[in-house]
Design a protein that fits this description.
This protein is of the alpha+beta class. Helices cover about 30% and strands about 25% of the residues. It has a five-stranded antiparallel sheet, with helices on both faces. Strands 1, 2, 4 and 5 form a four-stranded antiparallel sheet that branches.
Length: about 270
């Protein structure tokens, strides 16, 4: 059953989502060729705990880290580790926090230094999938309308939509009903109503849609090893429209100051 949130509950989820956004801002200062993904994980964990919150993913069904860090052909749920980011990589960083009993969840795919035009176009399109999903998430529409709108942007650009992983309700649980696939049919699914809080998170592949899971039991990568993009906002339906509770503003601000010419995807 979907739990529609009160204003007070949305305020708590907003606070958690803003802390996720500020954690991303901190990470964006450090994104550069030569940094290891484990260093980024430590930066995020320290930042979150310094702000009286807990990393939401650490320990979630046994996930061992604060961040999911998913470079290039890794779609989601990658483990931070010794991998050194290099010029031309793209890397999805997914972060969640728990504060005052409520979760926030947001992901951004960063460019590491200069990236190819092909990767840039994939990321801009994935970003546009997210923004289109947010636009379509309005009272009177259905969840199927949102899913369809995301799929259309991706497929019109010649990309494919990962089917196995979906957006989700957010609240006192990190993942709660409803599920929000990134593909679907117009008019299907629940009607969108006031107080709905969901994480919209398109995962878009440059090649075919198929994914495989690595032997670690978590890491999801594309079967054809082509790159994948991922952007995610936690949003709430307020006065009939989806309002992002998380934000990329801190990322954009930090990337403007980042000396590695790392581009801002928008
Ligand atoms: Mg996430
Ligand atoms: Mg999520």
């Amino acid at each position: 059953m979907i739990h529609y949130k009160t204003k007070e509950e949305i305020d708590h989820i907003r606070e958690s989502s803003l802390l996720v956004a500020r954690t991303h801002g901190e990470l964006a200062r450090h994104i550069r060729p030569g940094i290891s993904t484990l260093e980024l994980d430590h930066i995020a964990e320290t930042f979150i705990r310094d702000h009286a919150a807990e990393p939401a993913f650490k320990g979630y069904h046994g996930f061992p880290y604060t961040l999911c860090i998913s470079p290039n052909e890794v779609v989601v749920h990658g483990f931070p580790g010794g991998k050194i980011l290099k010029e031309g990589d793209i890397v999805s960083i997914d972060c969640g926090v728990l504060k005052n009993g409520f979760y926030g969840d947001s992901a951004y795919t960063y460019a590491v230094g200069q990236i190819s035009q092909e990767k840039k176009h994939l990321l801009e399109t994935t970003y546009r999938c997210l923004m289109t999903g947010i636009e379509t998430m309005r009272a009177g529409n259905t969840l199927g309308d949102v899913s369809w709108s995301i799929q259309k942007v991706a497929e019109d650009a010649g990309y494919s939509v990962v089917r196995e992983l979906v957006g989700h309700g957010v609240g006192k649980r990190l993942h709660e009903p409803p599920e929000l696939p990134n593909h679907g049919r117009k008019g299907r699914g629940e009607k969108i109503k006031e107080g709905l809080v969901v994480a919209i998170e398109p995962m878009i592949n440059m090649g075919k849609r198929f994914v495989v899971q690595e032997k670690d039991g978590w890491t999801i990568r594309t079967a054809d090893r082509q790159p994948s993009g991922h952007y995610e906002h936690t949003v709430a339906v307020i006065q009939g429209k989806a309002e992002p509770l998380s934000s990329f503003a801190f990322i954009e601000e930090a990337l403007q100051m980042n000396p590695n010419n790392t581009i801002i995807i928008r």
